[in-house]
Design brief:
Blueprint: H1 2-14, H2 17-34, H3 41-48, H4 57-82, H5 91-102, H6 106-139, H7 144-161, H8 166-180, E1 183-184, E2 191-192, H9 206-225, H10 245-265, H11 274-291, H12 301-325, H13 331-342, H14 351-354, H15 356-377, H16 381-385, H17 392-411, H18 414-432, H19 438-461, H20 472-508
Antiparallel strand pairs: 1-2
Helix pairs in contact: 1-15, 2-3, 2-4, 2-15, 3-4, 3-13, 4-5, 4-6, 4-12, 4-13, 4-15, 5-6, 5-12, 6-10, 6-12, 6-15, 7-8, 7-11, 7-19, 7-20, 8-19, 9-17, 9-18, 10-11, 10-12, 11-12, 17-18
Length: 509
């Protein structure tokens, strides 16, 4: 009961008029920055950091929390409407969310995202309050071998599921891994695949690849079809800003499953929200195939609901990791850690004793931010959807400009802008030959983690490969991986048998 009483005291701090104003300002700023391709909540917090020293610490961090959650809402809005996610956490939402928008269900897609973000965020905030010590203990169970097993699971499981052709899925994954290893080797300090170009020494940014493949690739695809299919440039949008009872019942299990997947990842440093969103999307796709409905690829509401809930659930528990352990597991959390230090505060177990008003006020503001964002975003879903009514040549030209401005603003490099165009052409080619995009993104996100975990595990074990199956967590991951791959192969063989049987029936007939 002690956490509950502390939380009530925190609401007393967060609900003061000024702090409530800072929550609303943070939510608005986060949403506004999130809709810009290549930007996101981390950049918003970084830009606001020098401007908040005039505020008291509680007001500053309450506003940062609003920006943090608001950025995720904004990222999802543009990911769904324009196929241009602001951050990696919104990539998985583009796969089915943008298809929903293209089929005239943009307001429903935005409502699904808003409710999913609210569900995942609210549940994760409750978990943070009551189960933070248990989550912190869980994070200590993961070592390099477990991280490698987790990355391998994501590689193989997603590549074998997201495409009808396993070969195309693996080809996309290999391309993502190839991009991820460009740059200076963090262990040996040698150049890798840079061709002596100094601009590539720091590697290729995930933001650049995300914007290029998902945004510019889509722009090139639409432009290539303009003359042959003028109708491809027109996206109709129905005005219903809410979900029907059937849609809500279909999305509800996916919201809950996505939340369950995202919760533990907030305290496990595996790259932020990207990993659980991809895993949630992959799970829903496998369940869809197993049920025989095969709605994925046509705008499946569950394929949007699960990643949205997973991403926001991860964000909530990431704050628990920052506050309880002083461990930032995302770029935004790292910037907030720097902000704590600027105020002379050190996140960790002692922070709850030294600054209880600040900590519990901040935790209470998470709940308020979720409600504020739902109120702001749900009624405005039809308004955001009207962006689709802009004449498409102007709309996609504007997207191109914002993509290039966003990349130049984050890197201050003309070279990155040219690289953006080149990788965008690769994204267009992948669409042209029906090569899935998700494995490429997973390779980019998890490639560095898998490489560093592999090396660390081998170094710590003296080169003994048995270290990868020496813990219960690793063994469970590999067993589940074998089961997933086996089920995928069995499903494909069964489908071929059915198709062969149908052909024989037609011949006999």
């Amino acid at each position: 009961m002690e956490p509950l009483f502390s939380l009530l005291d925190g609401f007393g701090t967060a609900l003061t008029p000024m702090n409530l104003l800072w929550v609303m300002v943070g939510c608005l700023l986060g949403t506004a920055v999130g809709v810009l391709p290549g930007l996101g909540s981390s950049m918003a917090v970084a830009l606001l950091l020098p401007m908040t020293f005039a505020l008291d610490p509680a007001g500053a961090f309450i506003m940062f929390a609003g920006v943090y959650f608001g950025g995720l809402f904004g990222d999802s809005t543009m990911a769904i409407l324009m196929n241009t996610p602001g951050q990696g956490s919104a990539i998985a939402s583009t796969f089915e969310g943008h298809r929903m928008a293209k089929s005239g269900r943009a307001p429903q897609a935005l409502a699904t995202a808003a409710i999913g973000a609210f569900t995942g965020g609210l549940i994760s905030c409750a978990v943070v309050v009551f189960l933070a010590p248990a989550l912190a203990a869980f994070s200590t169970l993961f070592g390099p071998a477990e991280y490698f097993g987790l990355a391998l699971f994501a590689f193989v499981a997603t590549s074998s599921v997201v495409s009808d052709s396993v070969l195309k899925g693996l080809a996309s994954l290999v391309l993502g891994l190839a991009i991820a290893v460009v740059g200076i080797d963090s262990v040996t300090g040698t150049e890798r695949f840079t061709s002596g170009v100094p601009e590539l020494f720091d590697g290729i940014s995930l933001v650049t690849v995300t914007v290029a493949v998902l945004a510019l690739g889509e722009v090139f695809r639409v432009a290539s079809r303009l003359r042959r299919d003028p109708g491809a440039m027109v996206i109709q949008s129905s005005g219903r800003p809410f979900l029907s009872g059937k849609e809500f019942r279909e999305a509800l299990p996916a919201w809950l499953r996505g939340t369950g997947i995202g919760l533990p990842f907030g305290v496990v440093p595996v790259g932020g929200s990207e990993v659980p969103t991809f895993m949630a999307y992959g799970l829903e796709r496998r369940l869809d195939k197993r049920s025989g409905r095969n709605k994925f690829g046509t705008g499946a509401i569950r394929g949007l609901a699960a990643p949205e809930a997973a991403g926001n659930a991860t964000t909530g528990t990431a704050m628990a990791s920052l506050l309880a352990l002083g461990l930032p597991v995302s770029a935004t959390a790292a910037i907030m850690l720097a902000a704590f230090q600027q105020y002379g505060l050190q996140p960790g177990p002692l922070l709850f004793d030294r600054a209880p008003d600040l900590v519990w006020g901040l935790l209470a503001s998470f709940f308020i931010a979720m409600i504020v964002l739902l109120i702001l975003n749900l009624p405005f879903a039809p308004l955001w959807a009207k962006l689709l009514l802009i004449p498409k040549p102007y709309l996609y030209a504007g997207i191109t400009v914002f993509c290039m401005l966003g990349i130049y603003a984050t890197s201050n490099s003309v070279f990155d802008v040219f690289m953006l165009v080149g990788i965008g052409l690769v994204g267009f080619a992948m669409r042209r030959f029906d090569i899935p995009l998700a494995p490429l993104m997973i390779g980019m996100v998890l490639g560095p983690l898998a490489e560093s975990s592999l090396r660390d595990a081998l170094l710590s074990s003296g080169g003994n490969y048995a270290v990868f199956v020496s813990s219960p967590i690793s063994i469970v991951l590999y067993l589940v991986l074998i089961a997933v791959v086996g089920a995928s192969l069995f499903g494909k063989l069964a489908q071929r048998r059915r198709e062969r049987g149908n052909v024989m029936t037609d011949v006999d007939g």
